């Protein structure tokens, strides 16, 4: 299993055996969970990579590398569990304000991992049927990252087990603003077209019927996250309870769960706990959903 970084002492076959053992254990627990109502979409705010690195005296940005491994493991657990959508808050627009060295490290790491996935025949994404999508204001990224991200989206486009959305150069406010601007432009173009068709005649566009008004469904169509249903669960690590500008529009009825564990330390037990918690609150959340609008 390529995910295990520590190679010292333990042989390859022993590692494979241990992975198999933990797989069987997970399979057993997950089958118990699947009796209850199941979440479709789980989103993660991956907080605590830097602190993890500092606590362990890891050099440079190694905490972020550990965070990446934790995300890949989480993708595997979610696949095994039968979750259809997962979303990870990888890099916020606000993160560009961090030290240039750290930003560079994260971007280099991302590029390296994407290229690695693209170069492998038997990549984790093809093995588990993971389709990858990047959400966010891609214009803010450098050309090599933008290009690699696009290539990964194309390469995994036919995978259909699970959709992993990576929020990159993302904030909710930026997403909402962008969606409203696009909807407005679209509406404006429609109105101009209708006016040019009906020139000299009575306008076909009737403001009283609300043709000029932006509608909720139209705005939602232009959201970066339109690719997935709203999340059932949002998990944040490292003991914080804030959403930090993540999925503000989509989280009206999400079950919010915070763990004190730093992101690289998250395990399949946290996932199990989160799903149980969701199942306990499910009927309440469903009722809320029905009352909406
Ligand atoms: C995905 O499927 C389409 C249609 O079957 C095909 O044209 C395309 O090459 C496939 N893409 C990949 C990356 O396999």
Automatic annotation (TrEMBL):
<protein>
    <recommendedName>
        <fullName>Alkyl transferase</fullName>
        <ecNumber>2.5.1.-</ecNumber>
    </recommendedName>
</protein>
<dbReference type="InterPro" id="IPR018520">
    <property type="entry name" value="UPP_synth-like_CS"/>
</dbReference>
<dbReference type="InterPro" id="IPR036424">
    <property type="entry name" value="UPP_synth-like_sf"/>
</dbReference>
<keyword id="KW-0812">Transmembrane</keyword>
<keyword id="KW-1133">Transmembrane helix</keyword>
<dbReference type="InterPro" id="IPR001441">
    <property type="entry name" value="UPP_synth-like"/>
</dbReference>
<dbReference type="GO" id="GO:0005783">
    <property type="term" value="C:endoplasmic reticulum"/>
</dbReference>
<comment type="similarity">
    <text>Belongs to the UPP synthase family.</text>
</comment>
<keyword id="KW-0472">Membrane</keyword>
<feature type="transmembrane region" description="Helical">
    <location>
        <begin position="66"/>
        <end position="91"/>
    </location>
</feature>
<dbReference type="Pfam" id="PF01255">
    <property type="entry name" value="Prenyltransf"/>
</dbReference>
<comment type="function">
    <text>Catalyzes cis-prenyl chain elongation to produce the polyprenyl backbone of dolichol, a glycosyl carrier-lipid required for the biosynthesis of several classes of glycoprotein.</text>
</comment>
<dbReference type="GO" id="GO:0016094">
    <property type="term" value="P:polyprenol biosynthetic process"/>
</dbReference>
<keyword id="KW-0808">Transferase</keyword>
<comment type="pathway">
    <text>Protein modification; protein glycosylation.</text>
</comment>
<dbReference type="GO" id="GO:0045547">
    <property type="term" value="F:ditrans,polycis-polyprenyl diphosphate synthase [(2E,6E)-farnesyl diphosphate specific] activity"/>
</dbReference>
